[in-house]
């Protein structure tokens, strides 16, 4: 089954050209099933690119999925046209009475700021509170993962001292987790950040499982044992050229910007990067949708209101 989207969304044409099956909302209304409801809180500046990246992997499943996009009403987006947000996005006020099987909170280019100084932190905190009774499983990505850990456990991010940018190897350390099913012992993933979360903080202050980590990247993927909270510090969703675009952007501001590690062939920015993480990305997002969302979420999403066990998960 396909992912269901507004047929005017720019990502639809891109995905159709890649032979990824998407269904417009009119056709989907005739399907006699209960589709999976997913909310994407898109905090990235290049929202249209992030939409396509995430939808590409969410589409790789036999499940029918309805997707809503949400933006921060308290933040002025400088890189996305207002008409795009008005047409395809919702605000928290629009969805606060809805229920979702899954929630994705993306990264954001604000990691150098203290969380409390991010201009939409109060609004995002409302979403963190709201999701307890309105969402079954939440997937936090990069800064979204750091923000989720800070809000729930008080664990702050730590500056690395340089930008961790490149394609790095990670080792699966918790093979029994369904989220790691079908992974090889090692997999590659892009990372792009200036900060990290310390493993000692996770071990000492939470009961989260460490599913994958790497010598260069540190922690990579964490999860609660019931998979209702998942944290990924990399960017498995990135396109082939995303790190390259970030490098060109940064190098215009600082000529000493380091070339992303293990990314351009022979470290030559003139050459096309090799795509080496797509299989891991597809496996990870499919596992999340299947094992953390579809097989566990209640048929009646309204029952989440009565699921008090959520508050005590570990």
From TrEMBL:
Binding locations of substrate: 163, 192, 249
GO molecular function, one term: homoserine O-succinyltransferase activity
E.C. no: 2.3.1.31
Pathway assignment: Amino-acid biosynthesis; L-methionine biosynthesis via de novo pathway; O-acetyl-L-homoserine from L-homoserine: step 1/1
Site (Important for acyl-CoA specificity): 111
Active site: 142 (acyl-thioester intermediate), 235 (proton acceptor), 237
Site entry (Important for substrate specificity), positions: 192
Keyword set, alphabetical order: Acyltransferase, Amino-acid biosynthesis, Cytoplasm, Methionine biosynthesis, Transferase
Pfam families in the cross-refs: HTS
TM regions (residue ranges): none
Catalytic activity: L-homoserine + acetyl-CoA = O-acetyl-L-homoserine + CoA
Keyword Acyltransferase on entry: yes
Subcellular location: Cytoplasm
InterPro entries: Class_I_gatase-like (IPR029062), HST_MetA (IPR005697), MetA_family (IPR033752)
Family: Belongs to the MetA family.
PANTHER family to which the protein is assigned, alphabetical: HOMOSERINE O-SUCCINYLTRANSFERASE (PTHR20919:SF0)
Function: Transfers an acetyl group from acetyl-CoA to L-homoserine, forming acetyl-L-homoserine.
NCBIfam families for the chain: metA (TIGR01001)
Protein's UniProt name: Homoserine O-acetyltransferase
Gene it is expressed from: metA
């Amino acid at each position: 089954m396909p992912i269901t989207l507004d047929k005017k969304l720019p990502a639809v044409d891109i995905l159709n050209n890649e032979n990824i099956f998407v269904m417009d909302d009119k056709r989907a209304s005739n399907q006699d099933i209960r589709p999976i409801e997913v909310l994407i809180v898109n905090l990235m500046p290049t929202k249209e690119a992030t939409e396509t990246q995430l939808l590409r992997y969410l589409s790789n499943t036999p499940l029918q999925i309805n997707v809503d996009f949400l933006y921060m009403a308290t933040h002025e987006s400088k890189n996305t046209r207002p008409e795009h947000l008005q047409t395809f996005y919702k605000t928290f006020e629009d969805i606060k009475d809805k229920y979702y099987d899954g929630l994705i909170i993306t990264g954001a280019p604000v990691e150098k700021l203290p969380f409390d100084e991010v201009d939409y932190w109060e609004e995002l905190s409302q979403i963190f509170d709201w999701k307890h009774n309105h969402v079954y499983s939440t997937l936090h990505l990069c800064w979204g993962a750091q923000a989720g850990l800070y809000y729930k456990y008080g664990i702050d991010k730590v500056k690395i001292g340089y930008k961790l940018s490149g394609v790095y190897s990670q080792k699966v350390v918790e093979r029994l987790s369904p989220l790691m099913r079908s992974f090889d012992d090692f997999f590659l993933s892009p990372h792009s950040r200036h900060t990290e979360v310390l493993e000692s903080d996770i071990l000492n202050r939470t009961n989260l499982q460490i599913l994958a980590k790497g010598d260069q990247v540190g922690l990579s993927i964490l999860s609660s044992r019931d998979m209702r909270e998942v944290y990924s510090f990399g960017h498995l969703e990135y396109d082939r050229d995303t790190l390259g675009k970030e490098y060109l952007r940064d190098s215009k501001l600082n000529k000493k910007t380091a070339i992303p590690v293990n990314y351009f062939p022979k470290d030559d920015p003139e050459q096309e990067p090799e795509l080496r993480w797509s299989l891991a990305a597809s496996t990870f997002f499919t596992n999340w949708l299947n094992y953390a969302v579809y097989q566990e979420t209640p048929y009646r999403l309204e029952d989440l209101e009565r699921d008090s066990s959520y508050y005590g998960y570990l």
